[in-house]
Amino acid sequence: MERPRRLRRSAALRALTREVSLRPDQLIHPIFVHEKDSEHPIATMPGISRHSLSGALQQAQRAYALGIRSVILFGIPEQKDSQGTGAFWEMGAVQQATRLIKAALPELAVIADTCLCEYTDHGHCGPLCEIHLGGPEGTAADWTVDNDAALELLGRTAVSQAQAGADIVAPSAMMDGQVAAIRAALDVAGFQQVPVMSYAVKYASSYYGPFREAAGSTPSFGNRATYQMDPAGGYREALREAQLDVDEGADFLMVKPALAYLDVLRLLRDSFDLPLVAYNVSGEYSLIKAAAQAGYMDERRTVLETLGSMRRAGADSIITYHALDAAAWLQENQ
């Protein structure tokens, strides 16, 4: 008779035979930073706030003390415009926070989210252009993101972030050709050593709702379905998007969201040898928080199980709003 339970009968035996590891240095802590001097809790994401510059530094210091070695910064500007020019302003929130964190914690990797949606007054990931659609009553006008105009702005944003000291730039706009444009801009500016962490496979997901409140990036009209991926698009689209970014010079690949797309995460792990990042997004975070607060689930066990599933599916690292809590729990387990 087979008896697999022999290897589960004690904590020591379970640890000895465990296949999946989860460590604090595999977690990436997201930080929302704005230009105000106060901390603003985010109602839809319990425990998460918009931070001042000093607050962002404190978050980074806390993460480092817990064994986390990477943070990703999202900026919320005071002023927005149609082009998102605040994204590459040298005194922008991300740029200032990067300089402050790197001065205090030079060994902490600072990742800069490279997008325009937080900085445009319409909430889309690039400047808009008018298009004309044929119809039964003639030609109707509509608006869409100008892909190629966005590329130049994304390149400028990445260079500005690198100049501020960002260790990694992470383009998330899902514009065609964005990795190539950013790689070229960085190289011309002398930042050949700065890697690109591509949001390679990013879906037009309903799980982003809490983030959009946090970052103030909800589109003022329409949605992002014309540039983010179709949740029902299937494996071929995921492979094509990832391969394009590899060919354009990406140094990391990312799947976003993670939990509803673990199959896609596994597909990319089996198909590419670049470091693979899972983004445990805001909606996934808030669902667990709400259930835990209602007493439906044990938060600690659920979080660690969820993050472990992403590692098991093939993620090398995980962006997660649970990072501080998870790292503390992992240290206690040690």
UniProtKB/TrEMBL annotation:
InterPro entries associated with the record: ALAD, ALAD_AS, Aldolase_TIM
Entry-linked Gene3D superfamilies: Aldolase class I
Record keywords, A-Z: Heme biosynthesis, Lyase, Porphyrin biosynthesis
Span of the signal peptide: none
Catalytic activity of the protein: 2 5-aminolevulinate = porphobilinogen + 2 H2O + H(+)
SUPFAM superfamilies in the record: Aldolase
SMART domains listed in its UniProt record: ALAD
EC number: 4.2.1.24
Any one GO molecular-function label of the UniProt entry: porphobilinogen synthase activity
Annotated CDD domains: ALAD_PBGS
EC class name: lyase
Source organism superkingdom: Bacteria
Pathway as given in its UniProt record: Porphyrin-containing compound metabolism; protoporphyrin-IX biosynthesis; coproporphyrinogen-III from 5-aminolevulinate: step 1/4
Subunit structure of this chain's protein: Homooctamer.
Family membership noted in the UniProt record: Belongs to the ALAD family.
Name of the protein in its database record: Delta-aminolevulinic acid dehydratase
Species of the source: Deinococcus lacus
